[in-house]
Amino acid sequence: MKPVYTQEQFAADLTGEQTGNDPQPLLPVPEDVWMIQPGDVVYSQSSQTASPASLERGGSVISQNYLVLRPESVLDPGYLVYLLNEDPGIRKQLVSRLQGSQLQRVTVKDLENLQLPPLPKMEVQKAIGEVYLWQKRLTFLREKSIQNREKLVMASLKGIGNEQ
Questions:
Q1: CA-based R_g, the chain, Å
Q2: What is the Cα–Cα distance from 65 to 68, expressed in whole angstroms?
Q3: Is residue 32 within 8 Å of 45, Cβ to Cβ?
Q4: Which H or E run contains 139?
Q5: pLDDT, tens digit (0-9, with 9 covering 90-100), for 2-44
Q6: b or e along 106-145 (b: 16 or more beta carbons within 10 Å of the residue's beta carbon)?
Q7: 79: helix, strand or coil
């Protein structure tokens, strides 16, 4: 039995959200099935975005909704996530390759055939990838803070005016 990688885990890996100890769905799987390894980049077919795989996801089984990319040593995983999610040239290539009338998907071959821009030095790639992922985390935390503040205000308002 192996844990299954979920959309919630994908989103948490991209934003740095701490996931609880909720039980993961487990599936009996053959030994040759694709499993996530730390350092992998996971591409979601449904959101058409990429996320780094966190250490906790190691050994999770992916569904057909995801593609796993294992960048070569000349490409930093965080930088690859940045390119797939934000680079206009890459996004244009991906949109032009979408297949399917209702459920549009890219294929592994599509991702393998992407024309990447000239790659900066590895230390620059790492810096860009780290800044990008920290910014995603910061945006997530700001949004969560706003939601929590709104819940607090709404809960406070419920008690006002009901005193007799």
A1: 19
A2: 10
A3: no
A4: helix 122-159
A5: 777 777 887 888 887 766 655 566 665 555 566 788 889 999 8
A6: beeebbeeeeeeeeeeeeebeebbeebbeebeeebeeeee
A7: helix
Q: Which of 104, 135, 131, 108 is nearest to 120 (CA)?
A: 131
DSSP the chain: -EEBP-HHHHHHHHHTPPP--PPPPEE---TTS-B--TT-EEEETTTTEEEEPPGGGTTPBP-TTEEEE---TTS-HHHHHHHHHH-HHHHHHHHHH-B-SSS-B--HHHHHT--PPPPPPHHHHHHHHHHHHHHHHHHHHHHHHHHHHHHHHHHHHHHTT---
CA 95 to chain centre: 18
**Which residue's structure tokens are 């057909």?**
64
**Structural contact between residues 51 and 20, judged by C-beta atoms closer than 8 angstroms:** no
- Output the six-digit token pair for 102: 């209702």
What gap in Å lies between CA 87 and CA 103, rounded to an integer?
Answer: 23
pTM of the full structure: 0.75
Q: Which tens digit of pLDDT belongs to each residue from 139-163?
A: 988 988 888 888 888 888 887 766 6
